[in-house]
Structure formats: structure tokens, C-alpha cells
Specification:
Strand content: 25-35%
Distance between the termini: 9 Å
Order of helices and strands: HEEHHEHEEEEHEHEE
Bound molecules: guanosine-5'-monophosphate
Largest sheet: 8 strands, mixed
Number of strands: 10
């Protein structure tokens, strides 16, 4: 998605440790018009997937998912909560995620009330790096017996393994911008050519 790539080039900051900071439009301040255009792109890609629900993870996924839902007939958005403790009762689906940015594990939970075997789920997230966050969300769908109908990502770091592994596992992963390489010393970013 050209608009997103241009925005990353203009406002993204390449940090050491393979981290791309996009706080000015995605992870802290939110550009809702850009989110709306991202939602449009995912809706085109997943138009035949009969999505009944969008699943994301707090915090940055929520805004993106809520705007995207407007393009999927206003389906409900469910966000997995990052639990502080594992003192959880049986009314929830629980998985564990290793955070790339925080370098620690945390449990993620979704109430059984909001996901079931009737659902055809679009999983959305801001970034895809090693795929741990997505694996947690896929686990939760599996616990619920829900179908993972697709995965939409704003920015995939293609030089990390998550995207390739998920595609090899058969998931339809639609990443709107794929960074093939980035260099913290001069801030340069190379995007993968997309059709
Ligand atoms: P993964 O679980 O795929 O390794 O990492 C994805 C999660 O880590 C995303 O939900 C995102 O919050 C965070 N993340 C990973 N890499 C980056 C990055 O380069 N920049 C930002 N802002 N977040 C990242």
C-alpha cells in the first residue's frame, strides 16, 4: 500500500535492534484517515472471506481494528487483553505471548462470551515480526473452535520470520507494507515490491 509506505518513509524512525518506531501515526498518535484507507485495503483483500468478527490485541491493534470494522459491515471487534497475572478463571481462552518489544512473556485472554465456533475471524495487528503475538491470537481462535479466515497486518518486517512461517502454515496474510531491510545508521528502509 503506497500511502502507508510513503508515510513510513516520511515519519518512521529506524531504531537499533530491528525496531521501527511509528508513534506519530500508528502507535501513539493515530492517523484515522490512514487507518480508514488501511481498512479499505483489507476489505478488498478479504471480500470473500465472510468475516464475522475481527480479533486483535491491546493496545495498538484496537484503533486499527475498530476503523477497519467499518469496512466489514461493522462486525464486532474483540481485543485480547494482556493479563497482568495468571490468576484467571475458566471463562476465558488463554494463551501466552513473548513480546518482541518488551522481551518478556505475558498471558493474553479473551472471554469465552466473545468468540465461538460460529466465528470466521480476521486477525489484525499493527506489526508482524517473529509472529508470537499472532500465534497467541491463533491459539485463542483454536481454543474457541473459530476459523481463522485471514490475517491483516499494517507493517510486516519481512526480514523476521513470522510472515513466512504463517504463510507456509497456510494462512492468508495480507501485510500492507513489508519492510525487507532497514538501517538504523542512515534511517533507510527498503520495501518489498507488492502487486
Ligand atoms: P511478534 O510477536 O510478531 O514478534 O511482534 C509483533 C508485536 O510486537 C506487535 O504487536 C508490535 O506491538 C510489536 N512490534 C514488533 N516489532 C515492532 C517494531 O519494529 N516496531 C513497533 N512499533 N512494534 C513492534
Amino acid at each position: 500500500m503506497q500511502e502507508l509506505e510513503e508515510r513510513i518513509r516520511k515519519n518512521g524512525i529506524v531504531k537499533p535492534g530491528n525496531v521501527l518506531k511509528v508513534d506519530s501515526f500508528l502507535n501513539h498518535q493515530c492517523d484515522v484517515t490512514l487507518f480508514d484507507h488501511m481498512g479499505e485495503e483489507w476489505a478488498k483483500h478479504f471480500k470473500d472471506a465472510n468475516i464475522t468478527k475481527i480479533l486483535t490485541i491491546e493496545a495498538s491493534g484496537i484503533g486499527i481494528a475498530c476503523v477497519a470494522a467499518r469496512h466489514f459491515g461493522n462486525v464486532p471487534v474483540v481485543f485480547a487483553k494482556k493479563a497482568q497475572s495468571i490468576n484467571l478463571d475458566g471463562d476465558q481462552y488463554v494463551s501466552t505471548v513473548f513480546s518482541f518489544t518488551k522481551q518478556r512473556e505475558f498471558p493474553v485472554i479473551v472471554s469465552r462470551k466473545y468468540l465461538s465456533s460460529e466465528d470466521s475471524v480476521l486477525i489484525l495487528d499493527d506489526f508482524l515480526a517473529n509472529g508470537n503475538a499472532l500465534q497467541g491470537l491463533i491459539d485463542i481462535c483454536n481454543h474457541a473452535g473459530a476459523k481463522v479466515a485471514g490475517i491483516g497486518i499494517a507493517i510486516e518486517k519481512g526480514f523476521q520470520s513470522g510472515g513466512d512461517s504463517l504463510r507456509e502454515a497456510g494462512y492468508d496474510v495480507a501485510s500492507l507494507a513489508i519492510v525487507d531491510s532497514m538501517n538504523p545508521s542512515d534511517g533507510s528502509i527498503i520495501f518489498r515490491e507488492q502487486i
